[in-house]
């Protein structure tokens, strides 16, 4: 059965451009309830841990540098069919391929500075949410 929670983080490009409020508004208007949220930063080392699954990929170093370059806004979200519906809302990883009206189409600059992350499975949503939030920080 699909979980009703997913994990997201607004990335440094979108936070730096002042798009946190606009993106959060889109998320809430799409029916997601915010269960946990904060403004924080990843060190280079913590970014490497978060994206460890990509450590063999050619873009891993660039990705970790970028994700530790400025503030981010991680969140845990709740909605029926959360993981799949959220990935529809954010659009394709490469903003050039993202559908009209999606968050990445509207706000992403490039494939690495692509505005927002969305978990790709229920299991990863749980793992990624726990990376940033303890149980007591979730509502
Ligand atoms: P995200 O959904 O956060 O998960 C992994 C990230 O790696 C992805 O978003 C992109 O920002 C980044 N990424 C994926 N493919 C590439 C690529 N070819 N070049 C640079 N970054 C990439």
In short:
With 139 residues, the protein is an alpha+beta fold. The protein has helices at residues 12-16, 20-29, 44-50, 60-67, 82-90, 103-107, 122-132; strands at residues 5-10, 33-37, 73-78, 116-118. It has a single domain (5-132), classed as Alpha-Beta Plaits.
Give an overview of the whole structure.
- There is one protein chain.
- With 139 residues, this protein is α+β, with helices and mostly antiparallel strands.
- It has one domain (5-132): Nucleoside diphosphate kinase-like domain (Alpha-Beta Plaits, 2-Layer Sandwich), CATH 3.30.70.141.
- The chain is 40% helix and 14% strand.
- The protein is globular.
- Bound molecules: adenosine-3',5'-cyclic-monophosphate.
- The site of adenosine-3',5'-cyclic-monophosphate has 9 residues, from α4.
Number of domains: 1
Order of helices and strands: EHHEHHEHHEH
Compute the separation of the termini in Å. 22 Å
Overall pLDDT score: 96
Task: Count every helix, treating DSSP H or I runs of 4 or more residues as helices.
Answer: 7
Structural category is alpha+beta
State Rg: 14 Å
Task: Characterize the main sheet.
Answer: 4 strands, antiparallel
What's the level 1 CATH class? Alpha Beta
Give me the CATH architecture, please. Answer: 2-Layer Sandwich
Question: Spans with pLDDT under 50 lasting ≥5 residues?
Answer: none
CATH superfamily label: Nucleoside diphosphate kinase-like domain
Percent range for β-strand residues: 5-15%
User: Which ligands are bound?
Assistant: adenosine-3',5'-cyclic-monophosphate
